[in-house]
């Protein structure tokens, strides 16, 4: 019943890791560079009575992911819940076409799309033998609007949506879904928090969307056994 959360030590990933631990899952908190943050998340889960360990992996590299998956399996047991949360962006104005280079497209595709493919493939056998194997991909509401931090970011997250539906078929009966957070104030907004909050105020529910809101949606998809191949937007109505 192990839950593996990539990018699990910070922001949305930390909130998801802690929420899944409260459900009773041992949690593999996977990180690339944020070792201290991952350690803090593990400590918080343990302090609350849960079980967690941190694992380092470059999720853009298939060999690294397969090695990490084997370490998780040995330490915590087979993976029954996979949350592909790792991702990144480049802040490039949408009309600045020349700055959106092939290198940036390729890097963000590997980080935002291929990483989820690597992880799902690495734990596919675990998921298929589980009573209710489940994958949740963390995408972006920018896919619906076409407006985001950059064109390569929007495109890579759109590809993740296609991967979600393809894997829902390819991994069945494993359930594969995705969440689309809107604007959530995380470390991506460091130094620009007020700008982010002003933009977030456009939500029709009248408040910001929080990391806990996203985590609650992930928990819903993990526990709702009849949902697969679906997208849930968590943005307080920003994209309506």
TrEMBL record:
GO terms for molecular function: oxidoreductase activity. Keywords: Oxidoreductase. Signal peptide: none annotated. This is SDR family NAD(P)-dependent oxidoreductase. SMART domains: PKS_KR (SM00822). Belongs to the short-chain dehydrogenases/reductases (SDR) family. It comes from the Bacteria. Its EC number is 1.1.1.-. Residues 1-192 form the Ketoreductase domain.
